[in-house]
């Protein structure tokens, strides 16, 4: 990692099915210099998130697709090296969506300053960042768990699910997680304090849900889709809310599998609603203010899986789509600030 | 029809697939006499609605199933013959859910009085009754069409769809109906004033929707399900609302077909929500007050299909599930009041 070379991960060709290192390439360029109103940063942390798989498809969704030759998008934490804007100075720690690269030039308005002493820097990409804010928005605007209700969280040990479930616990709900493997399930119950956690790799989902949710399911925070969605939908209660946040189980599929028959939505007056966190940007600062004290006092728990070096970013994406991460998936791109 | 015999249609055996006259039988009893606080009515009009198919299944949904030997449930308009309650007198015209029978005894609290001069009596079972209120609640609470938006209404000539579409027109939306056959489509466009109507029996649904909804679909009022649901969901816009009111296409099915893959709900932030009109009973009187002037001045249009005599009630149910009705399906059980 030198200050002279900007290394960027660009899309080489679109994946069919699972993306991997072969779909990307590293491009090196001289580090650019910031113009007026611009800021040069070096990347310290890069966030890897399931939504990135969608950007690799050649379709316009709520965001434009990445085109071959373009730098992959992604949230980062970095340090200002040079600034052409009076609002930023070298040494400032900043967050922004600066992509999979070692250095980046940003308009000042695209960055926000971070208090490096308030929380570990990586927390601003996970529990205090986009995933945490997603969980908060989903529970606030759609899930609205109430005392005594039963809430099911898929991908319960993930960056979004772990926060969503802890928020439901704070609201007084009974919370059941679903995660892959005994280690994750143990952590979800022991550290996060969920009432139960189902290992979706073992046994029968229908009976596991019946056993852990004897009073039915009032809120489902959907991060996964697939067989779990069918199983949970069949056990929803009247007036249940489904936060449609992600369906990572199908992100690598080329043909989308059919969904559940929706007849139950009528008789049970279910509300199924999609969520994109960037629709309500004010929630980001709102959540940071709310949750920072909980991170500081240790009452809001999180975990991270860290891969080292920008070159590992494609493998990190492969891994998160396979569920190989345990908590927030991160790439350590550059050294911590001095 | 005599004043001495109470004739009731009771469930004989549960249908598998399509229900018909063979699943019901007529039981005759002496007309009962009202006790204190009770009212004896003779039925004039009986409403036949798709939801009745659900009551024939041996499952508890939002309502209990009809058991073999029990009188079929249904909304009625009747005339008071004898009263054990000071609030009602012979000759009063009343509405209530008194079931498929010629006469009934009701607790006074289960009836409401109708002004027989304000609108045709049958209108209180259709445009001003449960179906009209369903359309109103669905559009008010979930659909919320806005000026310039595109609204698609399935079963557009039916008792619910015809009102739902006219409400969307009043809200300034562009409204596209879907109905079965050229006569219904003509009426939907000419009388109801929808901007277009697709005959789902002809041609390709996907291309017909693209042609009639060039700006995509913002609100879908779902009465039908099946292939139409898949086609509409594929053309929903960001932030679309789906009023899940009915899926009559599958009410006779024994195995529910799969539904649409729900991935789009996330990226498009769609809200899919179920509606049962009885959840908000205040809406009934609210809607009658709002819509009665529109019925009187002829600006709210409706149509009726009337079958004659209580014995035809089972055939009316068969017919409405086949889409053979044109507008509100009714059975004329007894003579108009003198």
CATH architecture of the largest domain in chain A: Alpha-Beta Complex
For the record, the CATH class of the largest domain in chain A is Alpha Beta
Please indicate the percent range of residues of chain A in DSSP E strands (runs of 2 or more). 25-35%
Write the CATH fold name of the largest domain in chain A: Quinone Oxidoreductase, Chain A, domain 1
N-to-C SSE string of chain A, H for helix and E for strand: EEEHEEEEHEHEHEHEHEHEHEHE
User: Globular, elongated, flat, extended or rod-shaped: what is the shape of chain A?
Assistant: globular
Considering DSSP H and I runs of 4 or more, what fraction of the residues of chain A is helical?
A: 25-40%
- Main β sheet profile of chain A: 7 strands, mixed
Number of domains of chain A: 2
What would you report as the Rg of chain A, rounded to the nearest angstrom?
A: 20 Å
Fourth-tier CATH superfamily name of the largest domain in chain A: Medium-chain alcohol dehydrogenases, catalytic domain
Major protein interface = A-B, 33 and 33 residues
Low-confidence stretches of chain A: none
Write the layout of secondary structure elements.
The structure is a homodimer of 338-residue chains.
Chain A: E1 5-11, E2 24-30, E3 38-47, H1 52-55, E4 76-83, E5 93-96, E6 103-107, E7 112-113, H2 130-143, E8 150-154, H3 159-170, E9 174-179, H4 182-190, E10 196-199, H5 205-212, E11 217-222, H6 226-233, E12 236-244, H7 263-267, E13 271-274, H8 282-296, E14 304-308, H9 313-322, E15 328-332
Parallel strand pairs in A: 8-9, 8-11, 9-10, 11-12, 12-13, 14-15
Antiparallel strand pairs in A: 1-2, 3-4, 3-6, 3-15, 4-5, 5-7
